[in-house]
Amino acid sequence: MVLKRVLLAVLLALSASSCSTERDENDFFAPGGVGIPVVDAMLVVGRPFSDVYLTRTLAPNQSFTLERAAIRGATVSIRDDFGNVIGYSEDGDIPGRYLSMVPTSTRVLPSRTYRLSVTLDDGSLLRATTTTPRQIDVASWVLLDDTGTQVLQELSTFADHGDTVYAEPENQIQYPEGLIEVRLNSAPATGYQLGLASLDLGSQLLIDTDFLDDEDIESFTRTNSSPPFEANETYFRVPWFAVYYEGRYKLRLFAMDRNWYDLARTDPVLGGGGIGFGGEAGDNTTRPIFHVEGGIGLFGSMSADSTGFYVVPPPN
Amino acid sequence: MTAPVVTMHRLLLFFVFLCVAGTAGAATLRGVTRDAKSSQPLSFVFVTVTGRAAAGDSIRTGTQSLADGRYQVSRLPGGRYLVSFARVGYLTREDSVIVASDTTDVSLDTALDLTPVPMQEVRVEADRFAKMREQQTGFVSLDAKRLSSLPGIAEGDPIRSLQLVPGVKAASDFSSALYVRGGGPDQTLVLLDRTTVYNPTHAFGFFSTFNADATGAVNLYKGAYPAEHGGRLGAVLDVRSRDAIARQFAGKLGISTIASRLALEGGLGGGSWAISGRRTHLEPLLGLIRDEDTEVPDYFFFDGNGKLSLPAGAGRLEFSLYTGEDVLDFVPDENTYLNLRWGNTVSTGSFFHPMGSTALFTGRLSFSDYASNTTATIFTTPVSFENQIRDYTAAAEVQWEASLRHAFTTGIQVASYDVAFSRVFNNDLLTDYRRKPVELASFLEDRWTPWTGTVINPGVRVRYINDGKRWLTEPRLSMAQTVSETVRLKVGGGIYHQYLQLVATEAVSAADFYVPIDESAEVGRSWQVVGGLDWRVKPAWLASIEGYYTDLSNLVLLDNTSPTDQENVTADDLFFLGGTGYATGVELFLKRDVGALTGWFGYTLGWTRRTFPEVNEGGEFPPKYDRRHDVSVAMEYARGPWRFTGAFVYATGQAFTPVSGRYSLRNPTTGVIPEDIELLYDDRNSARLLPYNRLDLGVARDFSMFGARAEWSLELFNVYNRRNEWFVQYNRDEVTVDAEVAKMLPIIPSLGLTVWF
Fold first, then answer.
1. In this complex, do B659 and A286 lie within 8 Å of one another by their Cβ atoms?
2. Best CA proximity match to B432, nearest among B468, B467, B387, B391
3. Claim to verify: residue B697 and residue B593 sit in the same structural domain
4. B8 in a domain, yes or no?
5. Nearest in space to B330 (alpha carbons), one of A214, A194, A204, A211
């Protein structure tokens, strides 16, 4: 009798196998995230006031185009602490783009607070504030030995040689020897980020790809950026895994304002989001920090410096 | 002014007289209870002494054997007594004993036989009152052999099997971690022979470090645990290594689909020894998968246990040791490789000695070490992570039978921790953290029996932590009231604190690390209340219902958005602070523990919530493992040489955070919109995966192999191959957002062979 009950229980459990685990993809999306205003604006110290993009969030199953997402007819202005106002007008050619109406001789100043104000055509407001960092103060760009203790080469800069810096002997670096390092005289900014761009399209791939498949190789990009750093030690090193190709590279160092730093460290696309440790699988979904009132996005500021070098393939 | 002094003197003399009268001519009955077949000590055996003293008084008293089988009944006046030994699943045994008036110690060891199988009826002759005298709420005590016999994946794992107990959940098929009554694995203290095991997992969390061959009793306090334990907000898992009592050499060899095991034991100078070990043997299987196009890492784990028990005068010395390590090597290329090593070493030395006829002293020295070491090179860029925690503890404890109504236990413990972790990237030391806090703890509890049928257990634990100069006071209270011969009520509660915070990662347990909560944050705190009822429905059936509520404060949650090169590693830097939460629910448990068919049915209805000011915009959210309904059924049917086992689990789907929109932002470093899509997430964990359900079946048969006893076994994990949902992954690299569900394990068969010699 007992055994019959056991068998019955087993059969009942087996009947549950008729419940499929396949689902409609829409089951994994929630409503309520469509139509939220998005600000995209970045001020660069020492440069003219750059354009402002205004768009709206779309549904997850929609492809992104400016035509579809753009916010039109908004009133945009930036005001500084001294009462100066930089007005913006809508770009007739590119939807969602707003261009500064001040002369290009008007530059973004360091250590200055700028307030963005956007009024949408339905009367709703977007507000954001940035305090620009000081001009970045690079002491030198160097190549160290593998231990990081001895300087092998000091790289020239664009200020020294202009665009011919890539051909300078001291800017020739053999892959993957030594450590490329940027040294600062001081590091007062909230955070820093490195950007590395391979300029020679079609140049030879340097890494050994025997264990990678075609999909992995296609995912390599010619531009990379580091996660945000606090810069406790006033230097940054470029890891060789960011270098895939032979040829010319432009290395840029950015000093970040608070808005950009907070977004970059919390947004997995821009470099943050953590390394996935500490938690349940699939549960690392912290919403980025936007610092935008009335919407999401980024109104940030930076100062930057750069140099160029040429990566030479290793001898065969 | 002399009158009060005289009164005080009289009171003092009266008190002394009482104590003396209580001890005059009183003996202590002590001994060890064992399983007659395996000779293993039996815990929680109800020992009842009834009879008549020489002076004519009727005596009725009793106790319960401890985790190592020892029991002690003090203050027995001379006379003739009947001693009854009873424990569910075993035939009750009665022995007569005569205590001479000039005797101070009477020794009586006993061995209990399992209820014979099959049985047409169960005759339980023990006093049911005695059987149900256990007063601890939320307490589960299971034999490791029983837990390991439940079907699973290749290796019988007593801890994975605990996930079938009501109130205990699993995060996934890939994890042996315990989620107890709404708390995560970081809130459960795991002990081996009273010493903390800091990362009790192998194979990235798939298996626990507890080898079934080396494990004796598995005791789980699901909440409201007593004052002898502390340091975690939720639960305590108290595992005891198997005691070897055999005086002659014996062994056991086992082999399964993934690992081989060997266990040996024997006698030594009046004592005993036992050693066991196991190692995976996946290398041939991995080698078959590996080819020119498919890189597969090399992986194995091993562990070993040892226990030595020796008489020491009137007492006993015990030494136990565990050591184990996981090793993973992945070398796809000379410029790209990954090497992981992580493991534990746990050692405990204990000394037991009676103090007179009414007290027992226990001294203990222990050492626990967990270390994890990751080194990698990614296209020539070196990366390394190391983390380690060491725990040196000295403890002393006294159990004193002060009177027939009061039994005190008190103890003191000093623990020195050494916590370290470091990260090196591209030959640059990013983080170098080390902290060496010291903790002092003392506790006192009383098992008070004011009248027959009522047991009250008040206690308090006081802790001092030099990191932040913190004093923590943790009162505890439990009470049990026998309502009738078959019904008993229990309540319990207490306040708990947690100083060492575990940061655990599901399915990557090698990455787990500990962080002491320093002065930059408050130590985690909980208070718990539990109440329930046990009902012996029939001789073979036990039913229980228990409700619980846990309030949590000062919770922490790892802040994964901390910058890569963050130098300061205080709690404030690493965690989101100031979390609060609660967990509440009801558990139903129906257990059949005698007969050919044994097992249990469990159902849990529960809610868990968390709130952090900086997470989910301060809104309340359920953790991923919050599950409304949880059903578990475990069965074993034994007939002759055959043994059939089954387990079924059903649970509400786990929570996940759905995507609600997409947007685009230019990358400030390039001025270009990245190819990866920016996702806008909805409220944290506001959606649910599909309900989880799974059926496991197993069959085993005894046979003779070259004259030795042997057993083969076949187990099927996930019999109907339901691909349960694990988590949702959103792919950002397509034109539109693509949701993909990672699934849990499919049907997995496993074979095993065990030989005893």
1. no
2. B387
3. yes
4. no
5. A211
In chain B, which residues have their Cβ closer than 8 Å to the Cβ of A231?
Answer: 565
Minimum mean pLDDT range among A146-160, B286-300, B356-370: B286-300
Residue A78 — very low, low, confident or very high, per pLDDT cuts 50/70/90?
very high
Query: Does B335 contact A at CB distance below 8 Å?
Result: yes
Co-location of A65 and A212 in the same domain? no
- Considering the domain architecture, whether residues B51 and B187 belong to the same structural domain is answered as no
Nearest to B723 by CA among B753, B752, B689, B756: B689
Residue B528 has pLDDT above 80, yes or no: yes
Domain that holds residue B193: 139-239
Mutate to test the interface with B, among A2, A22, A27, A28 (most CBs of B within 10 A): A28
DSSP B594: S
Using alpha carbons only, give the angle B55, B59, B63 rounded to the nearest 5 degrees.
140
Residues B482 and B616 both lie in one domain = yes
CA nearest to B290 within chain A: A211
Across all residues in chain B, what is the average pLDDT?
Answer: 85
Q: What is the CA radius of gyration of chain B?
A: 28
B151, amino acid identity: P
Identify the residue among B117, B560, B723 best suited for mutation to test binding to A, counting A beta carbons within 10 A and taking the highest. Answer: B560
Question: Which chain A residues are Cβ-neighbours of B558 within 8 angstroms?
Answer: 277-279
Alpha helices in A130-251 (DSSP H): 158-161, 214-218
**Conformational region of residue B640, where left means phi above 0, alpha means psi within -120 to 50, and beta covers everything else:** left
Q: Is the pLDDT of residue B654 over 90?
A: yes
Picking from B208, B239, B270, the residue at the C-terminal end of a domain is B239
Cβ(B85)–Cβ(B97) below 8 Å: no
Q: Does B623 touch chain A (CB under 8 A)?
A: yes
Spatial CA neighbour of B498 closest among B407, B575, B589, B600: B575
Q: What is the pLDDT of residue B4?
A: 33
* 3-class DSSP assignment, residue B604: strand
Same domain, A104 and A230: no
- For tokens 């030391």, what's the residue? B429
- CA-nearest residue to B735 within chain A is A63
DSSP secondary structure string, B473-492?
Answer: EEEEEEEEEE-SSSEEEEEE
Q: Which two tokens stand for residue B449?
A: 């029996």
In A140-197, which residue ranges form alpha helices assigned H by DSSP?
A: 158-161
Query: Chain A contact for B473, CB < 8 A?
Result: no
pLDDT digits (tens, 9 = 90+) for B576-594: 999 999 999 999 999 987 7
Residue with the bigger pLDDT between B5 and A195: it is A195
- Between CA B102 and CA B87 the distance in angstroms is 32
Question: A1 in a domain, yes or no?
Answer: no
Whether A274 is in a domain gets the answer no
Residue B77's domain is classified under what CATH number? 2.60.40.10
Domain termination site, one of A131, A160, A186: A131
pLDDT at B629: 96
In the structure encoding, which two tokens stand for residue B576, read together? 């989101």
**Do B515 and B656 share a structural domain?**
yes
The pLDDT-based confidence of A272 (bands split at 50, 70, 90) is: low
Spatial neighbors of B18 by CB under 8 A, at least 6 apart, are none
Domain count, chain B: 3
Domain co-membership, B244 together with B194: no
For residues B245 and B336, membership in a common domain is answered with: yes
Three-state SS at B633: strand
Q: Do A42 and B333 touch (CB under 8 A)?
A: no
CATH number for the domain spanning A106: value is 2.60.40
Name every chain A residue with its beta carbon within 8 A of the beta carbon of B378: 239, 241
Considering the domain architecture, whether residues B656 and B688 belong to the same structural domain is answered as yes
Under 8 Å CB pairs connecting chains A and B tally to: 275
Query: In angstroms, rounded to a whole number, what is the distance separating the alpha carbons of residues B413 and B364?
Result: 9
| pLDDT of residue B200 exceeding 80 | yes
Residues B688 and B585 in one domain: yes
